[in-house]
Amino acid sequence: PIAPLPVPLESPAAAFVDGTLYVVGGWAAQGTSATAASTVYAYHPASDTWSRVTDLPTPIAAASTAVLGGRLYVVGGCPDGCDTVGRHVYRYDPASDKWRQLADYPVPVHWAGCAGTSGAVTCAGGVNRSATGHARALKATYVYHPRTDTWTQGADVPYAVWGMAANGGNGRLQIVGGEVLADYTQTP
Is the pLDDT of residue 187 over 50? Predict the structure, then answer.
C-alpha cells in the first residue's frame, strides 16, 4: 500500500510525469452527491507523500490524460455529473506548476483513450452525450499537434468504444478493453 490520496475521488484523471503521479479532478463526495473537482495532487513515490499543485482551471471528472514532452495533457471530461460533456484541453507543466488551455477537442468527449505518440497526443473513442441524456460511443480518433495547437482526424477505431485502458508505446496509442455499448439513454 501507498499513502492514501488526501481526499476520496471517483473517476479522476491520472498519469505519471517524470516519476511523479498527478491525479487531476474527479468527483468529490459531498454528502449524498458528487461534485466535479479542480484539485490536482502529486504523489512522490520516493517519500510516499502527496502534495497539492496548481488546480486545473475548471472542475472536471472522467477526463482523459496523455503525457508528452514532460507535460501532462487533460482532455474532455464532465464539468458536472456528466449532464454536459466538455471539449476543453489543458496542458500542465510540472516545471512551472502552471496550466495552459489549448485548442478544444473536436467534439465533446469523456472516457476517451489518449496517449503521447511521436510528438503528438492521440485520443480515440470515448462518449459524447447530448443535452437530452442520449449518449453515443465514438469510433473517431483525433491527433493534437503541439507546434500548431491544432487537432486533425486520424483513422477510426474499428468499433465504437469508451472507458478503455489506454497507453502509448513505440509512438502509437494502444487501447484495451472498454465498453462497446454504442448508444444508450441515461435516465434520471
Answer: no
